[in-house]
Amino acid sequence: MIGRDYGKQYLPDQPNVFKTKQQGAQEAHEAIRPTEASRHPDTLKKYLHEDEMKVYKLIWQRFLASQMAPAIFDRTTVDSRRAHPGKCPAGARRQCRRR
Question: How many beta carbons lie within 10 A of that of residue 93, not counting itself?
């Protein structure tokens, strides 16, 4: 389903399996999940009230995301410094006075 609807790049190499962190612990995420991942929220819209739909959609999206490959992020960092510390460039005096 993930490969078909979102593309093969979102499929993990192996299915994601989550283990409990503490022996015998019952984790909350195990209790709240869709009964069938193929039940897309849009197909249930006519059967659910607005609030129920919002909750189901959130649960369905989170569940599906948990079964996908990890996200890859690009990050850009910009460092800026004034050329002459203590002096404001022309046209920027208003912003410099606020600091």
Answer: 9
Structure tokens at 19: 């283990």
Q: What is the pLDDT of residue 11?
A: 86
Task: Using 50 as the pLDDT threshold, list the residues of the chain that sit under it.
Answer: 99
Place of tokens 């078909």: 4
| Residue 93 structure tokens | 């005096």
* 3-state DSSP assignment of residue 95: helix
Domains of the chain: 1-18+25-71 (1.10.290.10)
Which two structure tokens, joined as six digits, stand for 92? Answer: 């920027």
